[in-house]
Amino acid sequence: MTRPRNGKALALSLVLLSFPFAEIQAEGGITRSLRVGSTLVPLIRWNPPSLTLSVETSPGCTETKPCDALLGLLQLQKKSTLPRSVSVAGGKNPGSVLCRKILKGEVILGQDLEGNTDSLCRFKDGSFTACSSLSAVMVKYW
Question: Is 29 exposed, middle or buried (0-12, 13-18, 19+ CB in 10 A)?
Fold first, then answer.
């Protein structure tokens, strides 16, 4: 099943193509950090024009210099179906399942300054995205 293009999406695409391409990333910089073992992992929230929503990725990941985290999010957005092997039965975290089964990333747990735990997907190039960002891109399937 493909997603129909509407006039607004087409107009936005034309507007983006008419401007010289610039590095587009979070305006405010790092939005939060998660402690993973003894390492502090910074995350930024930004709205890549090629995605339909705001996501969290590693700093330095841009449209013109994409990291594996952004490429994974784009790959998920383009999918029209999920393989039968991808199941969230039994209360599995959908973002963690997508990270492991589809994107072949590593799921790790981090803890913020308030002690809250969150899952991250780490990719081969060392970039990260929040598993909640993966879930948000694929919400149409859950």
Answer: exposed
